[in-house]
Records
---
Amino acid sequence: MPGKSRAELIRGYFSAYQANNKAAVAAVLADDFTFTSPYDDAIDRATYFERCWPDSPAFSSIVIERICEDEDAAFVLYRCETADGKTFRNTELHLFHDDRLRAVEVYFGASYRDGVFVAQKPSS
């Protein structure tokens, strides 16, 4: 019986993240999982949960706009609205080993509040 498609795994991951279901996310992450973003350089699984996991649901919505699969990798374009009304779009590269998520690389997009562009602080 074939495993789930990368798109199905990604949709489950995002659904669990929006629901603040840490156990469901932990179940799909490989033991050697790494997370990279403009703020994090290949942090490990434990550090990911410390830094990136909210104490309460942070997003009122996460809408996946596109998933492009290529063997053990997939790019995801998504739009989020935070609990305080900020919206943004990001792209992520998800790398898999079998049915487990081995790495995520996040690329940030622009942010908006009430439809108005919100400039981010420049990096140093």
---
Amino acid sequence: MDYDQLASFLEVAKLGSFSRAAEKIYRTQPAVSAQVRLLEQECGEKLFDRSGKRVLLTPAGEVLRRYAEKLRDLQKEALQAIAELNQTPRGKLFIGANEATCLYVLPQTFARFKQLYPQVQISIYRNFSQKVQEGAVDLGIVTLPQTASNMEVIPMFRDEVQVVVPKNHPLAKNRSVTLKELIAYPLILPKTGHTRNVMDRLLREYRDQLQISMELASVESIKKFVGAGLGVSLLSRTYAGPEVPAGVLKLIPLEGHKLFRELGLIYRRDRYLSLPAKVFIEVVRESTPASKASNLPRPGRDTATPKTAAIR
């Protein structure tokens, strides 16, 4: 089998039609059919079920499709790697990161990267839970620990999570706040995500006493409504950075519990990385002090003690 045969096979599998595949790759239908027949002869199995209106893959065809897609991707990666030799990074870099990470963790990294590589365009994907795994984005920034065995992880951010209240709140004068004091007030919770899971576990024994005022989808919304006096919440210190010096919000440590939010840059170690992705990784490594990274738990391990927990 050769690459040309596999390319024709993949088009037929994608479009479910020999005639439409032939049109797509500018060949005649008999030529495409002949290529598929040669593949079937070599494999010793039928690759397509031609009995219906739409051509469907057989079980053998499904197996070949997976390997043919890998070969196609490898060919693209090989050509890209050769083309990148001695080149200045350019093109697009696809990164998965949520809104708060983009606003409060990445600006300086992005600024440094754009200063060094102005010809690279950065595209951010906010809903990317599977996109790094699927290869739809080059890099992702996720909460640690990360347990996927095929992912390389570079720790890049660690920040304490504390109680956040309006500046004139009764708790604002406290040096620390207990869970019992916290639940005496309406709570504003993140609607979903790792932080919400940690808060649910933390407050489980008080669930019958909780006053949940609001459930919100973004850090920005939580800050706005806490500042408006509609409730209290838990928030990373960095995320409350602008509002605390301005006197809008007050951060207070949670007594008896040390909570941390830890983020890492991840990428598939078994996939070829584009040149823009490689140089972005280098910028992250240079901007993450070794001493800071060494304090983070290893990916896939939870090093928290009963009074210290990572926001996951």
---
Amino acid sequence: MTNYFDEVDHRRLLAEYPIGAAFLDGPARLSRDELHALQERRFLQVVARGWEVPFYARRWRAAGLEPGDIRALEDVRKIPAFSKADLMQSVAEHPPFGDFHGLDLTAAGRLGAVLHTTSGTTGTPQPIWFGAFDREVQNALLARAYRLQGLADTDVVHSVYGFGMVNGGHSIRETVLHFTKALLVPGGTSSAMGKCSTVSRM
């Protein structure tokens, strides 16, 4: 039986998505062709996974696509766009969480999942799902941005995002705690209207 941290595999994650000097000495130095090849590899992995998810497979077939039709990054233009309304229709037709996330929540051996929602300011909150590896990639990329902006391990990060069902505050907390040594000072359950983070030197 695995847990969230086993599924993340941080060594693999940081090899694929390095932070700080490792990013500047690695992916940031890729040539245009090398960067395109990396983007295309990741894109085709996402497409292959998309065919396994009912929501995407249904929409892609309705647009005349079949597995194997998307062969290169340039083929992204063939993939039909979708909106939040389409996701909410999926939720309505396949309650309670829709069929766009690719999870079989009844499977005993399924991978771990993290559930958040949108704020609901434009209607019913939309469920948002993360797998462990995907979630930590999100956090690592934010940590990369923070490092590029000068975040140091001796800094204090005061995050005033809320900590309800919306992802924002949780993502900031996980980013700082998992990928830096900066001191995180959360602002509690403040309103989502005042979303920001500030950094100070100790």
